[in-house]
Design goal:
Helix 2 packs across helix 6. The longest helix has 34 residues. The two termini are 22 Å apart. The chain has a single domain, classed as Four Helix Bundle (Hemerythrin (Met), subunit A) (Up-down Bundle). By secondary structure, it is mainly alpha-helical.
Amino acid sequence: MCKLVKSDNKSAGELNRKKDAISLLSADHEALLCHFEELLGLAHDAAARPRRAELVTRITQLLKLHLEIENTIFYPAVTVRMADESMAIESSFEQDDEQYVIEQLEALAIDDPRYDATVTNLCGQLRDHVLEEENQIFPRLRASKIDMEALGVKIRSRQRGIS
């Protein structure tokens, strides 16, 4: 099983049991990185095309929801309370890039020569996104007085509305 490297060594199962906003977003990160790990492992296996297509569909669905939650619930709530809009602005630019690559990937056929490069590009962007949030943004927010439990309720509600 894929494990997200975190300073507190929490597994995806442990993160899913927690209800606070940061734990929910971290669980998304774990799931996405695990799906990408499997997808990249199947990159040159022609017999695995159906599984690769299934993984890409799942990844794009999860990532779109994750980005939507961050853009509409998480970052608006935390930037209002942190007096530091730079993290939301920077995150928004990165997420625009990720959204563009998702759209490119969805438009490509699995046998298109650009497909694997686009998957690799999106995976790299996701890893950068995860590292920044997990190592820089989330620790700052954990130290703040923001009610991550209440924010987690909103996020979980949105996740359930889509799933």
